[in-house]
């Protein structure tokens, strides 16, 4: 869909006010928006509108989404060694590193350190577990989300059914190491370690970089209201 076509259709959708969800549950908002705009649901990874991803969020809720995962050449000690030294048992009795990292040390003594050029998972002993350059994270971010059309919606519940009022569309582009540094320091970007001991190796599900949906605009250099 071309951007101008999207604008025309979105303005008409705004004029309709609250509309009922076309699907129950968390995915109802995205499905309802796309269906109302005439965008067919698919699993294609290509951007929806002229190179921009389309993302809708409920203004009143603070849901978390995963921006991307990134593990390439970041481990400063072997993941299996890190699990054995700093891991804890999960519900299945496996030892693993399943932690959402904070600037404050957790029960294992691990914390997130943020500098001008990098973020790292460290132990209070001074040992560095993993390190990411902010430039590499900015590059990964732009690779995954080169531009975003961010749709805000108010919600109401009527007779047990969710209704949406899609009231704002913003076009967001670009990020920078400086922006990401600030958002890590504000703890608006969360870092999830997700790996466990498989005996002779570590099973890594990918370190997740997550953000609250309503904080998404803080990650972009350029933000413009388009409808």
UniProtKB/TrEMBL annotation:
Concerning Pfam families, the annotation shows: MvaI_BcnI
Q: Which residues form the signal peptide?
A: none
Occurrences of domain MvaI/BcnI restriction endonuclease (ranges): 8-220
Q: Which InterPro entries match?
A: MvaI_BcnI, MvaI_BcnI_cat, MvaI_BcnI_rec
- Gene3D superfamilies reported in the protein's UniProt record: MvaI/BcnI restriction endonuclease, catalytic domain (3.40.210.20), MvaI/BcnI restriction endonuclease, recognition domain (3.30.70.3570)
Protein name stated in the entry: MvaI/BcnI restriction endonuclease domain-containing protein
Which source organism?
A: Endomicrobium trichonymphae
